[in-house]
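User: Can you recover a sequence for this backbone? Please restate the input before giving your answer.

Assistant: Of course. Working from this structure:
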């Protein structure tokens, strides 16, 4: 049987509207509700309005929305129906960041939620609901028809590094593996699926495709609040729930799962970052009727992914690909490494690849012959399960050792007083760098107790030489700690007087208690350490 031709996003919407016109596709936290018939009708109205304003195939249209998921879904599908690329914009961007993004992607126009300010520049703006209300019968240009290889979306992401990257995906990439009338549809055990991902993220974009293709109605919870999120699950009897690890940790800390009946949940999906073992254990207790699945992918790699049902017997494992040929671990020269050896993680799928917009050298470094470099270090166990070691950029090179920040963070999160944790490497004149960490506490605790706790779980080389208590951790839109900002928090304070000479033993043994004592010989650090214990 010949392979089906590649699909486009407008094709998916048109087919769903024909088959399930009255079915609710999306509900959002503002009270919005969108059926497939309304979605198709309003998206076509937006497409015609954009065409009359001169938007053509290949243009780029930014979408500046906050929590109006129904309006955003209409605007997105209206833009791509013209053959233009939609650029979802994070509502958390500052005016300067927004202006830079619009300039960087070459935006022709900005569609926005009512009341959102748009900076001046080489683009025009309009409220998406106003465009949707424009009558399509007015004479004017007809929308161009997108082709499967046309760029459908550009997701602007900085990951945890703070460096902006614009990832372009074609219709064929977004629609890879989809069919127009699957039997059964995904998540058919649910009438409703819930998420709280921001619109401007890749996770949010994938939810839009799920709304087009999966069985349940998509309920978009808006900004994550653990108690409200659990209340929505219970009120709507949601069978499928999507989270990222930072949301999961906040839900567990809030004890919201004890105040609401979550027995309706049959599938709980975690993605966007490695799920700490302590959080995974907590989720299995909070959602006793649910299967907990962990997904591993990236904005660049979608639809390539690894997934597995969380297994307490393999707490560090992320899973295996459907085919073992779609995952490899390589050395610096690209040679494949055997199980057990740590190297660079690469994933692939047979989907058309993504690329960095306007960055051919960056694309060449990440996208190679169908493979995607994940930017992570990992290893395979004897059964082919992927064990993630760390982000390649986050690994602490301390002397001759490489120290994983993920292991340090996981150990910190095992402590009952630690609510959040992030570890980084800080400079050291002899070792190059040594571990340090920031923590947010649920309740006051003596940090020496935390250090003693860590000493039973980490090697001497992994023990943080400095712990800093903070009120909150800087995170990006998908909940990942922003490591450059974490490092800035851990920069030494301005010294008010010259430090006392350090004993020689402290230099030769930076991982032991003597090194910690050396840090506290500086009066400025001593004062800070006292503050940390309050």
């Amino acid at each position: 049987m010949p392979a089906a031709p590649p699909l486009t996003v407008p094709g998916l919407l048109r087919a769903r509207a024909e088959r399930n016109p009255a079915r609710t596709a999306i509900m959002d936290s503002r009270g919005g509700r969108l059926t497939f018939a309304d979605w198709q009708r309003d998206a076509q109205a937006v497409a015609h309005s954009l065409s009359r304003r001169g938007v053509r195939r290949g243009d780029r249209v930014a979408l500046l929305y906050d929590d109006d998921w129904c309006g955003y879904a209409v605007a997105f599908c209206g833009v791509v129906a013209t053959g233009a690329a939609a650029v979802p914009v994070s509502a958390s961007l500052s005016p300067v960041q927004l202006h830079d993004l619009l300039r960087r992607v070459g935006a022709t126009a900005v569609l926005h939620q009512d009341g959102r300010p748009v900076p001046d520049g080489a683009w025009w703006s309009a409220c998406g609901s106003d465009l949707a209300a424009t009558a399509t019968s007015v004479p004017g240009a007809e929308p161009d028809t997108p082709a499967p290889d046309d760029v459908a979306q550009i997701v602007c992401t900085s990951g945890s590094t703070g460096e902006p990257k614009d990832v372009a995906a074609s219709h064929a990439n977004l629609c890879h593996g989809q069919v127009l009338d699957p039997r059964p549809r995904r998540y058919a055990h649910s009438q409703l699926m819930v998420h709280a991902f921001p619109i401007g993220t890749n996770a949010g974009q994938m939810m839009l495709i799920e709304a087009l293709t999966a069985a349940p109605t998509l309920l978009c919870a808006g900004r994550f609040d653990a108690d409200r999120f659990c209340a929505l699950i219970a009120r709507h009897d949601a069978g499928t729930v999507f989270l990222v690890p930072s949301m999961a940790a906040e839900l567990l800390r809030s004890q919201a799962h004890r105040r609401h009946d979550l027995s309706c949940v049959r599938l709980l999906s975690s993605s966007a970052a490695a799920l700490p073992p302590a959080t995974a254990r907590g989720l299995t207790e909070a959602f006793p009727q649910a299967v907990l699945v962990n997904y591993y992918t990236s904005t660049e790699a979608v639809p390539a992914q690894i997934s597995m049902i969380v297994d307490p017997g393999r707490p560090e494992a992320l899973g295996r690909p459907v085919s073992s040929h779609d995952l490899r671990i390589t050395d610096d020269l690209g040679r494949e490494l055997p199980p057990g050896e740590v190297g660079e993680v690469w994933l692939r799928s047979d989907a058309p690849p993504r690329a960095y917009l306007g960055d051919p050298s960056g694309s060449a470094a990440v996208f190679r012959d169908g493979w995607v470099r994940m930017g992570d270090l990992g290893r395979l166990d004897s059964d082919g399960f992927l064990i993630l070691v760390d982000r390649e950029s986050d690994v602490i090179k301390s002397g001759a050792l490489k120290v994983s920040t993920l292991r340090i963070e996981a150990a910190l999160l095992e402590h009952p007083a630690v609510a959040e944790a992030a570890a980084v490497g800080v400079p050291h004149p002899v070792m190059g760098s040594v571990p340090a960490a920031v923590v947010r506490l649920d309740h006051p605790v003596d940090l020496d107790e935390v250090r003693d706790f860590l000493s039973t779980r980490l090697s001497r080389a992994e023990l943080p030489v400095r712990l800093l208590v903070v009120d909150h951790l800087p995170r990006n839109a998908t909940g990942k700690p922003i490591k450059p900002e974490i490092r800035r928090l851990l920069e030494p304070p301005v010294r008010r007087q010259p430090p006392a000479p350090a004993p020689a033993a402290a230099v030769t043994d930076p991982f032991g208690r003597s090194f910690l004592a050396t840090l506290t010989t500086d009066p400025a650090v001593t004062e800070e350490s006292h503050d940390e214990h309050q």
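That completes the design. The first strand starts at residue 24 and ends at 28.
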